[in-house]
């Protein structure tokens, strides 16, 4: 399996993708999927793309969990996770019906739409109560299961609230770990965890881990705007490059 994983076509592109994605994740708390998926969709089938993403995205950020538990809102994260428990199985059912080109298009277009919403400053101005939190979790789970993007709905929810950047960053990181665990469970139940993609994901853990550690190390809350706009630029470039029109 290791030999086959090392012989994967486009492995170099996957390594480059996780280095960029890990750096963004380290200094923003989100963005792994938005950076990695458009690259990975060019060389792997949709299910394999998400399996490799789940492996790297679950283990890579673990060193940041203790700090995230201190800075974040674990109770809200559990409510989001409860909502995702409903959305993830529906999303995975959609995923298995997508062909590679449709998947790549959906990932890139959805990434650009969500990025535009983040950059535009469009925010929900109403009351953020428990029903909205559960509902956001369900939508995030749907997006996660279908195209591997559980983070943006949660990010938009948190940015609608007057919270410090450290809280948003930490809570988002914790939710993404919860979402990954749920998605792994659903993938396993449906028999989608093939050995090949799991091994490829395992190979990508080390470079991703290093990039996340570097991003976390250089993150400075005093310059959060600079980090955020750098992440936006990387995400936009990845999404545009992942569109099938360049083939």
Structure description:
The protein is an all-alpha fold and 247 residues long. The protein has one domain (2-246). Helices cover 77% and strands 0% of the residues. It contains twelve helices and no strands. It has helices spanning 2-6, 11-28, 32-40, 46-59, 65-71, 74-95, 100-120, 130-147, 151-159, 165-189, 195-218, 224-241. Helix 9 (151-159) runs antiparallel to helix 10.
> Mean pLDDT, nearest integer?
86
* Unreliable residue stretches: none
Radius of gyration based on Cα positions: 17 Å
Structural domain count = 1
DSSP strand content = under 5%
- Biggest sheet, open or closed, and with what strands and sense? none
Q: N-to-C SSE series? A: HHHHHHHHHHHH
Please give the structural blueprint.
Elements (H helix, E strand, L loop, with lengths): L1 H5 L4 H18 L3 H9 L5 H14 L5 H7 L2 H22 L4 H21 L9 H18 L3 H9 L5 H25 L5 H24 L5 H18 L6
List keywords for this structure.
12 helices, single chain
Briefly characterize the structure.
This protein is mainly alpha-helical. It has 12 helices and no strands.
């Amino acid at each position: 399996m290791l030999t086959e994983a090392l012989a994967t076509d486009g492995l170099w592109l996957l390594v480059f993708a996780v280095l960029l994605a890990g750096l963004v994740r380290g200094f923003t708390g989100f963005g792994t999927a938005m950076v990695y998926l458009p690259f990975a969709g060019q060389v792997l089938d949709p299910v394999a793309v998400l399996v490799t993403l789940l492996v790297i995205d679950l283990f890579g950020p673990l060193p940041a969990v203790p700090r995230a538990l201190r800075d974040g809102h674990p109770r809200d994260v559990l409510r989001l996770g409860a909502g995702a428990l409903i959305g993830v199985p529906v999303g995975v059912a959609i995923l298995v019906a997508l062909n590679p080109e449709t998947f790549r298009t959906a990932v890139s277009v959805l990434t650009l739409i969500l990025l535009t919403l983040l950059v535009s400053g469009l925010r929900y101005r109403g009351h953020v109560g428990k029903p909205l939190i559960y509902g956001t979790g369900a939508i995030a789970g749907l997006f996660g299961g279908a195209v591997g993007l559980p983070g943006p709905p949660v990010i938009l929810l948190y940015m609608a609230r007057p919270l410090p950047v450290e809280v948003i960053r930490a809570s988002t990181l914790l939710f993404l770990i919860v979402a990954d665990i749920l998605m792994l469970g659903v993938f396993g139940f449906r028999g989608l965890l093939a050995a090949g993609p799991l091994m490829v994901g395992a190979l990508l853990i080390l470079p991703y881990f290093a990039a996340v550690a570097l991003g976390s190390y250089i993150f400075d809350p005093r310059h959060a705007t600079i980090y955020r706009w750098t992440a936006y630029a990387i995400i936009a470039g990845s999404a545009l490059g992942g569109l099938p029109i360049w083939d």
